[in-house]
Please model this.
Amino acid sequence: MPNQVAGIKIYNVNDYQRVAREILPKPLYEYLASGTDDEQTLAENESAFKSWYLRPRVMRPVGAISTETTLFGQRLSMPVFISPAGVHALCDEVHGECATARACGEVGTLFALSQHSTRSIEDVAAATNGKTNLWYQSYILKDRDMTLRLVKRAIKAGYTGVFLTVDSVRFGFREADARNGWNSLPDPLRLVNYDDETSQKDTPTDSTTITKSKIYSGEEDAWDQNTEQIFEQNPTWDDVRWLKSECCRDLPLVIKGILTAEDAVEAVNAGADGIMVSNHGGRGLDGALAAIDALPEIAEAVGNRVPILLDGGIRRGTDVIKALALGATAVGIGKPFFFALAVGGENAVVNLLRILQKETEAAMAICGCQTVGDINKKLVTRHPSGAGRVEQYIRSTL
Model:
């Protein structure tokens, strides 16, 4: 039987996107659903999974199957978590990121709070009341002091890990947003972590002025171009060493936005505790590899030195299995939880995660894997013909 959220029958993850498309204003829906340029990478994030095939093993005990895993010693009920992504209040004006974080606590998995959140670091921590495994996502800002203060606030509030996003010195151009006039954050929404910082400064700085004006000005054709100027555009791997030494000596620092073996090795050598394979959900460089296709070379280069995470294109439990078989420790989801949040709030996000957990458990059983640790690279292969089944992503149909 299907699950019902707000009276709507939901059978799978993509059902939330189909329903959200019907109820959300077009500009908002396309802001959430779109990618950059021709949306090639956006499309292939999903379709590339279909070019990897499972090799199930039979006659193996799976009567005590468990999706539980650990990440940096932290227990997760399944190898699926909520990736950092900003402005949840676009889909839940009352609770914003607090709703998504509580949903993760209910299911028993990790929630990553974006630096671009609409609820503050401290408010999200208070809303979960210690019941959610909270991580914080950071960018390297031109204002280095603010970068450190934000991370230190998260640590003080009880966050247990940090994602450092490194693929956003510039954002890709979102044509859908420009066509729809989506060039500013709708009132009264704010990127509150920046506002909290700038309101505490007695003397305005260049970055303070930028934060208070350009982000909300609508000066650029697409909103994300109004935020990118606050990011450091001349970063080096020394910045990873700097953040690790200044803030993250006692908690894991995962570098998010890695797509090549070379950069994965550089990140580990710079002190990263983990790697996250990601192309920013197809919202960065169009024409970059799908995350699942970038994973194998990174896993081979890094080996067992650090955990490898992945996001981009996860829609089924079989996708989770394929990613783990190719070297990931756990996977994150981004776009799907926005659509669930828009359709049914916190309860819908809980349901979304449980759908993925149920599908993952079933796929593990059919593949002969009783634990997450049983999943290995022998479970996946390319098609013997050398060709895969690739379906074109058409946003208007979802």
